[in-house]
Amino acid sequence: MSTGWDDVGGAFVTVAPGVVTSARWTSPPIDLDDPPYRAQLTVEHEGGRMVCRELVVQRLPGGPPVTSEGLHAIPVRRLIRNGVYRFLMDVNASGARELLQRDPAELRAAGPTEESLRVVAYVYRLAYLASDPPVVAVAQHFGLPRSTAGRWVQRARAGGFLGSTTSGRAGEDHEGGADDAG
Length: 182
What we know:
- By secondary structure, this protein is α+β, with helices and mostly antiparallel strands.
- The protein has helices at residues 68-72, 76-91, 93-100, 104-110, 114-129, 134-142, 146-158, and strands at residues 6-7, 12-16, 19-22, 24-26, 30-31, 37-46, 49-59.
- Strands 1, 4, 5, 6 and 7 form a five-stranded antiparallel beta sheet that branches. Strands 2-3 form a two-stranded antiparallel sheet.
- Helix 6 (134-142) packs across helix 7 (146-158).
- It is elongated.
- The protein starts with 5 loop residues before the first strand and ends in a 24-residue tail after the last helix.
């Protein structure tokens, strides 16, 4: 399965042990419904997240002209988020799928074991990379209350599966681990 997102190359980002991806990608041309434009974006890793480096917008054949109102309506965050999930599942098919194919209900029932904390760390990092709320993503993945997911994230940090962070802030403080492949 190909997502159409191209690896631009250069530096690499480790999302989880065995799950490494390029720090910069370019999307295929994406036809938007509202506004009715064709968009293509290049995203890059910055501060633990994928951010838009470049956005190219074109008028669709027979469509309305590109306007400032139309540009403001382009769902850049959604395009980045969708690209992160698609690109990582395609490029890292074995590593990502191996982590995500573990039955969340079984992991939840087993509690915060080493295996489940590895998955917590991966889900957390993937959500953070996509600018989604990471603790909410962990809660949704495992079917846990948000408060319990927060405790599991704390245990993943204490167990060394996630780096430390400033209290009340998502992500990881250091640039090692999740941010650099070496």
